[in-house]
Amino acid sequence: MNRPTATTNNSQHNVCTYAQQSTFKIMLLGDSGVGKTCLLVRFKDDTFLSGSFIATVGIDFRNKTIVINNKQVKLQIYDTAGQERFRSVAHSYYRDANALLLLYDVSSIISFNHVRDWLGEIKEFAQSDVIIMLIANKVDKTNERVVTREMGEKLAKEYDVPYVETSAKTGLNVEFCFKAVSQALLEQTAATTSYGQSASKTLNSLVQLNNRTSKHSVCCLYS
């Protein structure tokens, strides 16, 4: 099966501002309760879902358009249910995804232990060149944290995927995750040119830079 490609649309009305718009499909994966919906809502609306709310059933879907390096990018973001009974529903979406954000809760060792299972499903159902990011969410819960940064980094290194720590509650690194993945996907669409580097290399470089400059705003990474 040929890999689904990102779509681009030229617009005469916006030609002075943006040369083209790219559309990418991103899926949020991970156990129920790791904060996938909260991460999405923080990114989409810059708000935090506090208190009790109904867990995602099947697949939820939201759009957001952002600008990366003066290029307009439309993100189609799929929020998947983490419960076992909904896994087969999510599987049908894997092959159309350009990027997968795999979350676990740093206060839940069970969700961390299940990361290997999720990565196994990704290998089975997703395209071989899909972009993957491992996200350690809820790092604001310092007193309840049981999964250390070292544990997360070790697992990410084992599977050769970038590792980022986030908090949907405080907004830490939430915007960065989506923008870094988007920039890597733009590199992927340009990979046919001799000047484009691999998407995974781009993403790893951005994550490493973000880790080094974590005390500063990440907005400077995107102009």
From TrEMBL:
NCBIfam families, A to Z: small_GTP
Gene Ontology MF annotations: GTP binding; GTPase activity
Originating organism: Rotaria sordida
Keyword vocabulary terms for this entry: GTP-binding, Lipoprotein, Nucleotide-binding
Pfam families, alphabetized: Ras (PF00071)
Official protein name in the record: Uncharacterized protein
Endpoints of the signal sequence: none
PROSITE patterns xref list: RAB, RAS, RHO
